Amino acid sequence: MMLLDFVYYGFIAVVFIQVIFYLGIFGKFAFKKPSKESRKIVDVSVIICAKNEAENLKNFLPSIISQDYPNFEIVLINDASSDDTLDVMETFANENANIKIVDVKNIEAFWGNKKYALTLGIKASKNEHLLFTDADCKPVSKYWIQEMCSQFNDEKSIVLGYGAYSKIKKSFLNKIIRFETLVTALQYFSFAKIGLPYMGVGRNLAYAKAEFFKANGFINHIKIRSGDDDLFINQVATKKNTAISFSKKSFTISKPKTKFKDWIKQKRRHISTANHYKLHHKILLTLIYCTQLLFWILAIILFAFTFNWEIVLVIFLTRIIIQFIVFGKTSKKLGENDLIALLPILEVFLITIQFVIFINNLISKPNHWK
């Protein structure tokens, strides 16, 4: 019985911590109303790094070219592709004067390193403000550049955006992918809102070129294959210089993985970069994950033994209701409403997958971005 007492009080402590996270941190974004910006116009270089993305460029590049914005260039980086990526880029460049091509050849020191290719593209760009997306990403509106760049001002030099994934009907994997994306966005938007920005996603991210050169580019983590987005932001973002953009017109949308093994491979690479975050970020993110995991484990144990089950049920439902409210508000903001009905199932599945990925990453490390 003493062991169950320990589990019981541990469960209360875990729920208490979770409620603090949901109401004190995540709620800052969930209940935030969009602010009306002055729509400052800045010259922008849209940077797209592509490796073997010929077909995606054909499909998605027109949505970048047709953006309603007065002055922007598009910097297309061909990262040593072996398909027709360069030919596709040249075709678009011949028809659009604002497209610049940077053709990157592999060199031994930086083979397969996206950061090297991006560095060359950034140096080739002519504008002070840089807006990044991927070759398989499509802005959801023609005002994408306008919405993202409206957040720049004399103080804000970094803008974190939302990169969604398209919906696939009757696909549980698709729901897991989009739920994980929703959870990640809730976390990095919320932490930025309270003055602790720790990451952004390269599918939709903007920053001033001055931030890049002030940090000596990616030099601090150049040997880490991934992290051109989250590790860089983790290094340079502060309470004062970081803004968020969550207007639906500022979103991008990408094609999600359709095979479970491909998604796991992608997530292994992404999760491996978290080991290189600043210590206080790692502590907070670890605490979030551990309390999520313990919430379900301890609840199952207490319900299985019907230990103080009436109180446990009230505590359990309180946490679930708070979670539903916060995620409901967030999913409405980010256009992921269909995920809410499956929230507990998706959460348990994602927690389990993340644990498996963590163990796999301890055994072997993912290396290349493509």
TrEMBL record:
The chain crosses the membrane at residues 6-31, 283-305, 311-327, 339-363. InterPro entries: Glyco_trans_2-like, Nucleotide-diphossugar_trans. Keywords: Glycosyltransferase, Membrane, Transferase, Transmembrane, Transmembrane helix. The keyword Glycosyltransferase applies. It comes from the Bacteria. Signal peptide: none annotated. It is an enzyme of class 2 (transferase). Residues 45-178 form the Glycosyltransferase 2-like domain. One of its GO terms (molecular function) is glycosyltransferase activity. Its EC number is 2.4.-.-. Belongs to the glycosyltransferase 2 family. This is Glycosyltransferase.
